[in-house]
């Protein structure tokens, strides 16, 4: 319980230390429920600290073991959480269409268990991962409309949870998916909402992506001098941010 509280309060180092102690004790007393509760915190924290292929692969192994343990004891919530961590880790490593389809499949399994166990946060993560990974494999308007459905579901739950992080992620996917099917009014709406949240969260990597979408969409639908001036302002903001991040691809796009 102390480890869970530490994790929820984002004291991750303490959470890892306490959950590791709990895990060791659970093995001594052969209590699989305690072992599972400790394991899920361990793997969630390891994922947050992971910064290399080797470490993400370690996350995958540990999460897979946690999924198996959760299935053995019938703990749907821990199973859902462990599957979502697996999906997140594969997403970090993914470089091909097949791997993004694997992310989608893991997230879909997590979604099913999250709904069965009424775990709203894990349900949101799963829906966002499904939408993000599907963006990598989409080929038709119908594919993008399905992605919009996932992201809208995630948006609704994120509002319930009052989570800026998940709201921003869902809004970002909505902006990108609508851009693919040329719904530029919706692109502007979702991108501007997402941008405000990302600035609060200080997530400059996604912020620059949404600024680019805003400029692109504005160029498509601008019909007045004022609208063109606003487009220029967004572009200047994006140019400064791309230079700050030393992102030459976006810098060239804003120029």
Rounded mean pLDDT score: 91
N- and C-termini, Cα separation: 53 Å
Beta-strand residue percentage: under 5%
Task: Please give the largest β-sheet.
Answer: none
Low-confidence stretches: none
Structural shape: elongated
User: Helix-strand pattern, N to C?
Assistant: HHHHHHHHHHHHH
* Number of DSSP strand runs: 0
Oligomeric state, counting identical vs distinct chains: single chain
Using only CA atoms, what is the Rg?
Answer: 20 Å
The class by helix and strand makeup works out as: mainly alpha
Compute the number of helices. Answer: 13
Into which percent range does the helicity of residues fall? over 70%
Structural overview:
The chain is mainly alpha-helical. Helices cover 87% and strands 0% of the residues. The protein is built from 13 helices and no strands. It has helices at residues 2-8, 12-29, 32-49, 53-73, 76-93, 97-116, 120-137, 141-161, 164-180, 184-201, 204-221, 225-244, 248-254. Helix 1 packs antiparallel against helix 2 (12-29), helix 8 runs antiparallel to helix 9 (164-180) and helix 11 packs antiparallel against helix 12 (225-244). The longest helix has 21 residues, at 53-73. The chain is elongated. The mean pLDDT is 91.
Descriptive tags:
about 260 residues, mainly alpha, about 85% helix, elongated
What topology emerges from the helices and strands here?
Layout: H1 2-8, H2 12-29, H3 32-49, H4 53-73, H5 76-93, H6 97-116, H7 120-137, H8 141-161, H9 164-180, H10 184-201, H11 204-221, H12 225-244, H13 248-254
Helix pairs in contact: 1-2, 2-3, 3-4, 3-5, 4-5, 5-6, 5-7, 6-7, 7-8, 7-9, 8-9, 9-10, 9-11, 10-11, 11-12, 12-13
């Amino acid at each position: 319980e102390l480890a869970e509280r530490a994790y929820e309060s984002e004291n991750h180092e303490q959470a890892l230390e306490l959950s590791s102690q709990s895990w060791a004790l659970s093995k001594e007393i052969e209590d699989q429920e305690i072992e599972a509760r400790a394991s899920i915190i361990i793997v969630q924290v390891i994922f947050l600290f992971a910064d290399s292929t080797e470490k993400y692969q370690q996350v995958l192994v540990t999460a897979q073991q946690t999924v198996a343990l959760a299935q053995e004891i019938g703990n749907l919530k821990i199973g859902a959480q462990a599957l979502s961590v697996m999906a997140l880790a594969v997403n970090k490593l993914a470089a091909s269409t097949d791997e993004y389809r694997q992310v989608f499949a893991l997230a879909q399994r997590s979604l099913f268990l999250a709904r069965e166990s009424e775990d709203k946060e894990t349900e949101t993560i799963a829906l966002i991962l499904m939408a993000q990974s599907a963006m990598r494999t989409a080929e038709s308007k119908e594919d993008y409309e399905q992605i919009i459905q996932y992201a809208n579901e995630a948006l609704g739950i994120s509002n319930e949870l009052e989570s800026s992080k998940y709201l921003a992620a869902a809004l970002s996917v909505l902006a990108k998916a609508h851009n693919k099917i040329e719904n530029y009014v919706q692109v502007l709406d979702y991108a501007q909402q997402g941008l405000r949240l990302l600035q609060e969260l200080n997530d400059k990597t996604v912020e620059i992506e949404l600024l680019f979408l805003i400029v692109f969409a504005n160029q498509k639908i601008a019909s007045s001098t004022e609208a063109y001036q606003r487009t220029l302002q967004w572009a200047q903001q994006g140019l400064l941010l791309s230079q700050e991040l030393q992102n030459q691809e976006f810098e060239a796009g804003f120029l």
